[in-house]
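User: Hey, my collaborator sent me this sequence without any context and asked if I could get a structure. I don't really work with proteins. Can you help?
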Amino acid sequence: MPVINKLFDNNIALLGKSLDLRSERQGLIQSNVANLETPGYKVQDFSFSRVMETVMANQGTLSRTQPAHIGLDPVETSRSLDFKAEDRPVDLDEEMVKLSENQLMFEVVAKLIAKKFDGLKYAIEEGGK
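Assistant: No problem. I've predicted the 3D structure and written it out in structure-token form, which is a compact way to encode the shape of the chain:
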């Protein structure tokens, strides 16, 4: 277990996974907007909450039989299981709302991570006095 996980009870890693998912979802939503007028294009998305629940429950991870085997990222594995293409045209208003919400949540999580590190920095600086 990395030292940083011991310091923050795995919160930093979990928040980092959340940022990864938010970034991935942002790309899908932007792709939907870019393909607004593409004939036959289907809206693509995934349920952030379901994928995050899977990551938090540590599902989607494969056990390694050999230490040299490369492990799969649970975010990537669970996202691929929950990915969906809806059989409907792109609604620009709906996509813009999803885009704004996703961006706002990304910023909130990024600020939470920054606050965690600010707390650590404060403890280090004040502990050295």
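In plain terms: The beta strands are 43-46, 83-86. You can pass these tokens on to your collaborator as they are.
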